[in-house]
Design goal:
By secondary structure, the protein is α+β, with helices and mostly antiparallel strands. The protein has three domains: 4-292, no CATH class; 298-415, no CATH class; 423-483, Arc Repressor Mutant, subunit A, CATH 1.10.10.410. It contains 15 helices and 15 strands. It has helices at residues 56-68, 164-181, 221-240, 286-295, 300-309, 315-322, 325-335, 341-358, 373-384, 390-404, 408-414, 423-436, 438-445, 451-462, 469-483, and strands at residues 4-15, 76-77, 79-83, 93-97, 103-111, 117-129, 133-137, 140-144, 151-157, 193-203, 213-218, 248-253, 258-264, 274-275, 282-283. The structure holds adenosine-5'-diphosphate and magnesium ion (MG). Magnesium ion is lined by residues 11, 154.
Length: 484
């Protein structure tokens, strides 16, 4: 029997974090912190007689995103009216783009679990204005127009995504790129970034895509993954019981962990798009595009390639270190001081992230932790030049650097932690421990090879963890060899 496979296309709405709205000088404010309707003007409210003016900063941000997503940027851009009635849209239409969008034919590379890379095609990205926000209460519905008119970039993928893990990778990569560009902070809980998943399933023998449903109101990537998995199972179950999938808009009910059907789509939405008569066509000159391209920061893919190819990191580690620009910069500045990249990578992804988790610091805030990149590079240098070993660094220096903000050398001096690599001192300790642990040594000599680790542990203990582990092991080994 033929098997079911999943088909997903993502539509992403990203607010462009400009000072003012898309078509008016009205300021953009924090949607949670600001009082409702404190940032509105006649344009946001759709008053008759108002005229829109294009926010060119928003256009530039949109083009930055288009370029970062490997899109073509057409020379002619046109805004269009998308007509529909809803209380969050007082004009009765949304200014959007239709057949002449800002960016087309791009792609995003995602890393799959097996370490390979997959290209997910980006069909288009177009500029539009956000709508107001409705809050439904017992007494009726409330509307806040602070968000109405905020620049919004809609990014539409091809249905190239094959499961929820790929959808997650796409969402994380896109979010990361937006944050690298500094055009959107990626906060899904505040609705600054919103994902909608179009989901269908098909048999491997099918030659055409089947009906899809669209899941909205996903306030985190984790919930998006859960919602997709739930919806795929629901669709397969319906098909297998002889039912059909009706096109519908769905929501994710977080409290009950299930999909809810918001409305069935009886027929295709009819928005009666037509060119926006109040706005000119925007010509995007090639010079302008080149200027914007020259200003783009190094993006995660390029950094990841640098970290794997030039620094010899695994694709996985490079992916973790480049997910946030601040982490990549922290790592990069440590390596620039001559520290071994693998040592730096291991310490950041285990010890630094560990302490950050403990203290509730988000990954993107790594540049605010008490262990500055410079001090951290200093710690790793002390390990590399043999002043302290990794055990001592971990146990006695690292967390103290976090608590006190002191540099590693100062702590090593204050606590007298320097590693002992003086062979005569080590030889003396090895001889002493062997003499004091007759029974243990005898068992080792009788063939229980693993006991060498116990003897090693006792020597390190006698040296209060400060012995150079390599030299201790060498001397212990040769002493025991002599005794055989
Ligand atoms: P519309 O024009 O009605 O918005 P599109 O064809 O433009 O529909 O697709 C919107 C989104 O839905 C895109 O992200 C696309 O990849 C995705 N999509 C289209 N068809 C399917 C399908 N059968 N299954 C899953 N996703 C789909
Ligand atoms: Mg749409």
């Amino acid at each position: 029997m033929s098997k079911w496979k999943t088909v997903i296309g993502l539509e992403v709405h990203a607010e462009m974090e400009t000072e003012s709205k898309m078509f008016s000088p009205c300021p953009v404010v924090d949607s949670v912190e600001a009082d409702p309707n404190s940032a509105v003007d006649p344009l946001s409210l759709g008053m008759p007689g108002t005229l829109p003016v294009i926010n060119m900063q928003a256009m530039e941000y949109g083009i930055m995103v288009g370029l970062a997503l490997n899109c073509e940027i057409p020379e002619i851009n046109q805004f269009a009216r998308k007509n529909y009635f809803y209380p969050d849209l007082p004009k009765g239409y949304q200014i959007s783009q239709y057949d002449r969008p800002l960016a087309v034919n791009g792609f995003i590379n995602i890393e799959l679990e097996d370490g390979s890379t997959k290209k997910i095609q980006v069909r288009r990205a177009h500029m539009e204005e956000d709508t107001g926000k409705l809050t439904h209460t017992m007494g009726g519905s409330l509307v806040d127009y602070n968000r109405a008119g905020v620049p919004l970039l809609e990014i539409v993928s091809e249905p190239d995504i094959a499961n929820s893990a790929e959808a997650e990778a796409y969402a994380r990569k896109l979010r990361s790129i937006l944050r690298y560009l500094g055009v959107n902070n990626g906060d899904m809980s505040k609705g600054i970034l919103r994902f909608e998943a179009n989901v269908s399933v098909m048999l491997e023998t099918d030659t055409e895509l089947r009906e899809r449903t669209e899941i909205k109101n996903l306030n985190s990537i984790r919930n998006m993954v859960k919602a997709i998995d739930y919806e795929v199972k629901r669709q397969i179950k319906l098909y297998e019981s002889g039912d059909k999938i009706k096109p519908a808009t769905l929501g994710w009910d977080e409290a009950n962990q299930k999909i809810t059907i918001q409305r069935y789509k009886e027929r295709a939405d009819e928005y009666r798009y037509f060119p926006e008569p109040d706005l000119p066509i925007v010509e995007v000159s090639r010079e302008w595009v080149a200027e914007i391209e020259a200003k783009l920061p190094t993006l995660p893919d390029a950094l990841q390639a640098k970290f794997t190819e030039e620094l010899g990191l695994s694709a996985y580690d490079a992916g973790v270190l480049t997910a946030e620009r601040a982490i990549a910069e922290y790592f990069d500045s440590i390596v620039a001081k001559g520290v071994d990249p693998k040592l730096a990578s291991n310490w950041i992804t285990t010890d630094v992230f560990g302490l950050m988790n403990q203290h509730g610091v988000e990954r993107e805030a790594i540049d605010t932790i008490p262990i500055t990149a410079e001090n951290f590079a200093g710690l790793l240098a002390l390990i590399e030049n043999g002043t302290i070993n990794q055990g001592t660094a971990r146990k006695s220096v690292f967390s103290e650097m976090w608590e006190t903000g002191k540099d590693a050398q100062t702590i090593v001096d204050e606590k007298n932690l320097a590693q002992i690599s003086d062979t005569s001192v080590i030889e003396e300790t090895v001889a002493k421990v062997i003499a004091e642990n007759d029974a243990l040594v005898q068992k080792f000599l009788d063939g229980n090879d693993k006991l060498i680790n116990a003897i090693f542990g006792k020597i390190m203990g006698a040296m209060r963890g400060k012995g150079d582990p390599k030299i201790v092991r060498q001397i212990l080994q040769s002493k025991l060899d002599e005794m055989k």
